[in-house]
Write a structure and sequence with these properties.
By secondary structure, the protein is of the alpha/beta class. About 40% of the residues lie in helices and about 10% in strands. It has helices at about 5-15, 20-35, 60-70, 75-85, 100-105, 120-125, 155-165, 185-205, and strands spanning about 50-55, 70-75, 90-95, 110-115, 135-140, 170-175. Helix 7 runs parallel beside helix 8.
């Protein structure tokens, strides 16, 4: 994903939520200062099925799908469940909005992709310096600079999918995803709508059909997604 391809979508997200691009850039610069370059060769997923594990329910049949996958990329909510189930995790994806202390602990042995955005500067300052730096992959949704990565994605879940794609996944599955969670607040619901749009874009880019979008594609607003 070139930033030139991502920027129109990013701009639409900023406009939709009223987010400040300058705030994202300040967070990006801070995360760049707090981290070192991550060795992406550690995340070569070529030829495999990658389970992108969301923060929704993981009943036994969903856990079985995760177990069968060749690689596992989990959002922060799902990482602890995977660990309890003895499922090896290749990468955790988080913006430190929930349980940042757990993310610190995870970096002792697991790569963690940390996202910088304008609202999480205090969390970056508080927790990134405590992390094991060789296991921190710094990411941004703004124009990437230095060693920071931007391969697309907005929420932790869809950003995890874009990272898996970037690392060569042959196919993607999405256990633990729930776009219709009735308990989320209005802002989170809008973010889930964007996650749907971005996954639709990703499957088009990959020429792949994600089962998690079955029955939903016709209702997804793709007017801001490039052809």
């Amino acid at each position: 994903m070139d930033f030139a391809d991502w920027e129109p979508v990013y701009t639409a997200i900023l406009d939709d939520f009223g987010f400040d691009r300058a705030g994202d850039e300040r967070a990006r610069d801070l995360l760049g200062d707090l981290t070192t370059e991550f060795d992406l060769s550690r995340l070569v997923f070529t030829g495999g099925t990658v389970a992108v594990v969301g923060g929704g329910p993981l009943p036994s049949e969903e856990l079985a799908r995760v177990h069968r996958a060749d690689r596992v990329v989990a959002v922060a909510h799902a990482a602890e469940i995977c660990r309890r189930e003895d499922i090896p995790i290749d990468l955790v994806v988080t913006d430190l909005d929930t349980d940042p202390e757990r993310a610190v602990v995870l970096t002792q042995g697991t790569p963690v992709a940390v996202a910088a955005h304008g609202d999480n500067i205090p969390a970056l300052e508080a927790f990134v310096p405590k992390m094991t730096q060789r296991n921190v992959l710094g990411t941004t949704q703004a124009n990437p600079i230095g060693h920071l990565l931007n391969v697309g994605g907005f929420t932790d879940g869809d950003r995890a999918a874009f990272i898996a794609d970037h690392c060569g996944a042959k196919s993607l599955i999405f256990p633990g995803w729930d776009f219709d969670d009735p308990d989320v607040n209005p802002i989170k619901r809008r973010k889930l709508a964007w996650a749907e749009r971005l996954l639709r874009w990703l499957e088009q880019r990959r020429n792949e059909r994600f089962a998690v979008l079955d029955g939903r594609r016709a209702a997804i607003d793709t007017t801001v997604i490039p052809d």
